[in-house]
Amino acid sequence: MRDVSSASVLQSTSAPVVNRSNPIAVGTIVWLGSEVMFFAGLFAIYFTLRGVAPDMWAAETQHLNFPYSLTNTIILVLSSFTCQMGVFAAERLQPRATSMWRWGMVEWFFLTYAMGAIFVSGQILEYATLVSEGITLSSNAYGSAFYLTTGFHGLHVTGGLLAFLLVIGRAFAVKNFGHREATSAIVVSYYWHFVDVVWIGLFAVIYVLR
Fold first, then answer.
1. Interatomic CA distance for residues 97 and 107, integer angstroms
2. N or C: which terminus of the chain has fewer CB atoms within 10 Å of its end residue's CB?
3. Phi/psi at 102 (nearest 5 deg)?
4. Rounded Cα distance, 51 and 49, in Å
5. Paired strand residues for 99
6. Which of helix, strand or coil describes residue 136?
7. What single DSSP character describes residue 208?
8. Where would I find the H helices in 53-140?
9. How far apart are CA 103 and CA 167, in angstroms?
10. What's the pTM value of the predicted model, to 2 decimals?
11. What would the pLDDT profile of 29-63 be if each residue is shown by its tens digit?
């Protein structure tokens, strides 16, 4: 009897452990899938209107400032790298810097927030310039397509900035930075990387393939 009981205990302790995915991370990925469909619809609208009025597109795209937009794009793309550095710090359960050369999640996310804010500010300035040149949301089909696609993306970037503030505030609010806080940082990074990838596609379509 002792041999049977000891064997059963040994079998139970050596049984494989099932590692389940974090439901918050899975839910975020599923939600981002729906966002992919949303932006796919915006791309379809843009290409449809462009195919209907190619001459209008050729004339209106001359107002776009490619070097300015490229600089703004580089800033947003680089923010993905700083965001990921913040994730690495969160995975080490290091919320704040331990030295000048070893930043924590908070410092990296603050830098990411600043770069995202610069991008949004740059986009607003670009809108002001285009409006002064007569390109508005209701001016023609090009204006509607341009502001709808870039505007909805700008709103998503703004939402990401608010998410960074919430994660940073949570890091200061809790006494012990644990896996739950690290998961929040990882989920926000999923969203931010998604926003960056979408903008690369928009930049290529709107500013490069004019």
1. 7
2. N
3. -130, 80
4. 5
5. 102
6. coil
7. I
8. 54-60, 66-91, 105-132
9. 16
10. 0.85
11. 777 788 888 889 999 999 999 999 999 999 999 99
Q: Could you report the per-residue pLDDT of 94-146, keeping only the tens digit for each?
A: 988 888 888 999 999 999 999 999 999 999 999 999 999 999 998 899 999 99
Residue located via tokens 């795209």: 61
Q: Hey, what are 81's tokens?
A: 């790298």
75 in Cβ contact with 134 (< 8 Å): no
Q: How many residues does the chain have?
A: 210
Distances in whole angstroms, Cα of residue 95 to Cα of each of 52, 92, 169, 185, 187: 52, 9, 11, 10, 16
In angstroms, the first-to-last Cα distance of the chain is: 81
Q: For tokens 């992919």, what's the residue? A: 36
CB 186 within 8 A of CB 73: no
Give how far Cα 76 sits from Cα of 67, 86, 87, 109, 123, Å. Answer: 14, 15, 17, 13, 11
At how many degrees (to 10) do helices 105-132 and 66-91 cross?
Answer: 160
